[in-house]
Every structure is written in C-alpha cells, then in structure tokens.
C-alpha cells in the first residue's frame, strides 16, 4: 500500500525536472496523478509514463486554472492534493532590470500559486479536506539581488501561512517547501562556475536530486503530515543554517 492510495494529486510544472520527479513519486505512492504545464509534449509524456492525465495549464491565468480544475473534477471527481511547483527564474537586479520581466516572474511564481490555491481549495473543502504544497525556495528565506524571484518566493512563503490559517478549519493543510540547489535545468542555466560557487557553500557539498525534494512533498501530501500545516520545510543541504 502507498501513502497516497486512492488520492488524486495535481502537480503544476510537471513536464520536467522537479515536477516530473514528484509525478513519478506520487505514482509510486499510489496516487492518480494529474500533470499540468504549458509545455504540452513533455507533459503528455510524463503523464503517460505515470499512467495519469495531462492538462494544459497556464498558472498565471485565472481562466486556465478554472478550466483545468473543472477538467480534473470531471475526469476524477476530486482533487486531494495540489503541488504548486511551476515557476520561472529571471536573475535581474532592481537597478538594471525591466518592469516587464518583474511582472512576468510575479505572475507565474506568486499569482500562479494564489490562483491555484483559490481554485482548488473549494474542491478540497467539498471533499472533506486535502493538502496543498507550495514550492518556494531558500530565496524565500533570505535576500539576493534577483529581486523578482526573491520577492515571489517570499510571497509564496507568506501566502502559504495565510492560507493555512484560513483553510485549517476545513481540513485543508497548506505548507511550503524551500529547496536550495537542486540539479534541474534552472540550476544548470546559472553556468558551471556559479553552480560550483554555490555547491562550495553547502555543508553537504552537493546539490540535491529532484527526488529528494519530492520525498518531502510526498510526506506533506500524505497522512504522515496530518498535523502539519503552515510549516516551511528547508531542503537545502544546510545551506542557510
């Protein structure tokens, strides 16, 4: 038996990297997995691999969220878990960055999480409860010059706590996960020298694999975390201890 048997789990940004790893782990735990993304071809491949469903979802669009949630409920009758994993990184500083890129990051990383919680929570309430896991970052725990990304991830941390308080009476738990250096495309795009500098600061002296973050997400989705809400879990190898 798996910890997520008979549960329907919706994972945004599920077409690759950390989201795809979470989809595979959720499948292994017995869940019915809904993979949601804007990158259709790899998303459909991941969904097929895990025996789940693929939904096209632009997390920054309220209409897209409404359509995706309606399709999920129509196809599966319920949503028991939501992983707000979709996110983008633009490493611009405040003084030389553009408003356009700032708003783009906020729309995906912050507004996307807000819309996801807003649209999925009523479904969970009707079903008697559920678990929402919002993927933030260590950038939601400390500052660095990439102002839009940092701002968005601090917002995810705060929104998670606010939603945890609001939804707890309805049996819906909300927690945030704060990864550090994870071996995904987002990390590798920083370049070899930047990655090496970062890894040298990590007490465990290595980046994490996406599955290591996914294991924490599976815990929060499951009844093993039945009394955990409003928490922020670091998965960073001790980087910001």
Structure description:
The chain is of the alpha/beta class and about 240 residues long. The chain has one domain (about 10-235): 3-Layer(aba) Sandwich (Rossmann fold), CATH 3.40.50. It has 8 helices and 7 strands, in the order βαβαβαβαβαβαααβ. The protein has helices spanning about 15-30, 40-50, 60-75, 100-125, 145-165, 185-190, 190-200, 210-220, and strands at about 10, 30-35, 55, 80-85, 130-135, 170-180, 230-235. A 7-stranded parallel beta sheet has the order 3-2-1-4-5-6-7, with helices on both faces. The radius of gyration is 17 Å and the shape is globular. The model has no long low-confidence stretch (mean pLDDT about 95).
Nearest-integer average pLDDT: 95
Q: Supply Rg.
A: 17 Å
Q: In percent terms, what proportion of residues is strand?
A: 15-25%
Biggest sheet statistics: 7 strands, parallel
| CATH H-level superfamily | NAD(P)-binding Rossmann-like Domain
- Highest CATH level, the class: Alpha Beta
- Helicity, in percent? 40-55%
């Amino acid at each position: 038996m798996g910890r997520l048997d008979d549960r329907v789990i919706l994972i945004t940004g599920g077409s690759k990297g950390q989201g795809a790893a979470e989809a595979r782990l959720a499948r292994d735990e017995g869940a019915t997995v809904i993979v949601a993304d804007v990158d259709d071809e790899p998303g459909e491949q991941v969904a097929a691999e895990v025996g789940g469903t693929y939904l096209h979802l632009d997390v920054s669009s309220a209409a897209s969220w409404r359509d995706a949630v309606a399709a999920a409920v129509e196809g599966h009758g319920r949503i028991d878990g939501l992983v707000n994993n979709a996110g983008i990184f633009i490493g611009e500083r405040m003084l030389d960055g553009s408003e356009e890129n700032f708003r783009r990051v906020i729309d995906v990383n912050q507004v996307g999480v807000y819309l996801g919680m807003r649209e999925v929570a009523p479904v969970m309430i009707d079903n008697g409860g559920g678990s929402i896991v919002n993927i933030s970052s260590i950038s939601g725990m400390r500052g660095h010059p990439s102002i839009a990304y940092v701002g968005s991830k601090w917002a995810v941390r705060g929104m998670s706590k606010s939603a945890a308080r609001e939804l707890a009476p309805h049996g819906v738990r909300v927690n945030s996960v704060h990864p550090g250096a994870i071996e995904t495309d987002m990390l590798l795009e920083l370049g070899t020298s930047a990655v090496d500098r970062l890894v040298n600061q990590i007490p465990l002296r290595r980046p994490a694999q996406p599955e290591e973050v996914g294991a924490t997400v599976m815990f929060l989705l499951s009844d093993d975390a039945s009394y955990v809400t409003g928490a922020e879990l670091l998965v960073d190898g001790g980087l910001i201890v």
